Each structure stands twice: as structure tokens, then as C-alpha cells.
């Protein structure tokens, strides 16, 4: 059993989990930041935001998509190498698609989206480059 490989594997899991926390905080604070935009609360009260009707189905879909990213904070720490690597790559790509589909409405959106997508690309790259040997001897 190689202790150095175990530490490297644990370190990679910790970094991936921490990156997911960073992504989620940016998603949450982007939404909170919108509340301070003039007229946004009034727009929300109409049930339509940025031209999108906010229905129960929309809220459920948005909740599911966000929960998947939240789950990655935990899953990045507990999943075994192969599933962990694939999950980080797949969920990273899907989250980028979700963020882009959500659209850009102003300059602060561009700022937050740039941070979110940049971090997700780091997650995807970090998982992609995760060497298989780093997990062979590590207990899962």
C-alpha cells in the first residue's frame, strides 16, 4: 500500500469537492445578486423573469439541476475512482450547458458566468487528468 498515492487520491477528491462548493456559491450569489437589480422583485412578482414564465415544473427542473451540482460536493469525496472521474466530467459538462441555457441578461451575469464556467472547466480538466494509478492502492 503506497501512502503517497492514497494522499494524492484523497487530495484530488478534496479539491474536486471544494471546486463544486465554489461553483455552487457562485450560482447562489448570482441569484441573490439579481434581487438588488432595480425592478427585479416587481418582475418576479408577475411570475415571469427575463421572459420566462416561472411555473412549478420550471422550479422543479431548476431544483433538480441545482441539486445534482450540490450532490457533487459529497459525491466527489465518496465515489470510487472510475465513477468519480466520470461523474465530475459529465456533471461538469451538463452544468455548463445549464448555465449557458440560463442566459445572460447584464454585465454582472457575464462576470458570474465567466467564474462558474471557468471553474467547471477546471473540474472537467482535473477529473480528465486524474491518473488511474493514483487510485489503485487507495482504499475506496
UniProtKB/TrEMBL annotation:
<feature type="transmembrane region" description="Helical">
    <location>
        <begin position="86"/>
        <end position="104"/>
    </location>
</feature>
<protein>
    <recommendedName>
        <fullName>DoxX-like family protein</fullName>
    </recommendedName>
</protein>
<keyword id="KW-1133">Transmembrane helix</keyword>
<feature type="transmembrane region" description="Helical">
    <location>
        <begin position="110"/>
        <end position="128"/>
    </location>
</feature>
<keyword id="KW-0812">Transmembrane</keyword>
<feature type="transmembrane region" description="Helical">
    <location>
        <begin position="20"/>
        <end position="38"/>
    </location>
</feature>
<keyword id="KW-0472">Membrane</keyword>
<dbReference type="Pfam" id="PF19851">
    <property type="entry name" value="DUF6326"/>
</dbReference>
<dbReference type="InterPro" id="IPR046289">
    <property type="entry name" value="DUF6326"/>
</dbReference>
<feature type="transmembrane region" description="Helical">
    <location>
        <begin position="58"/>
        <end position="79"/>
    </location>
</feature>
Amino acid at each position: 500500500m503506497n501512502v503517497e498515492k492514497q494522499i494524492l487520491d484523497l487530495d484530488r477528491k478534496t479539491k474536486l469537492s471544494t471546486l463544486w462548493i465554489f461553483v455552487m456559491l457562485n450560482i447562489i450569489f448570482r441569484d441573490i445578486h439579481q434581487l438588488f437589480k432595480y425592478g427585479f422583485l416587481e418582475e418576479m412578482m408577475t411570475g415571469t423573469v427575463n421572459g420566462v414564465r416561472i411555473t412549478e415544473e420550471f422550479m422543479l427542473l431548476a431544483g433538480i439541476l441545482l441539486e445534482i451540482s450540490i450532490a457533487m460536493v459529497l459525491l466527489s469525496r465518496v465515489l470510487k475512482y472510475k465513477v468519480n472521474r466520470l461523474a465530475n466530467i459529465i456533471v461538469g459538462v451538463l452544468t455548463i450547458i445549464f448555465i449557458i441555457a440560463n442566459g445572460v441578461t447584464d454585465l454582472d451575469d457575464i462576470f458570474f458566468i465567466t467564474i462558474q464556467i471557468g471553474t467547471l472547466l477546471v473540474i472537467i480538466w482535473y477529473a480528465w487528468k486524474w491518473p488511474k494509478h493514483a487510485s489503485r492502492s487507495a482504499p475506496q
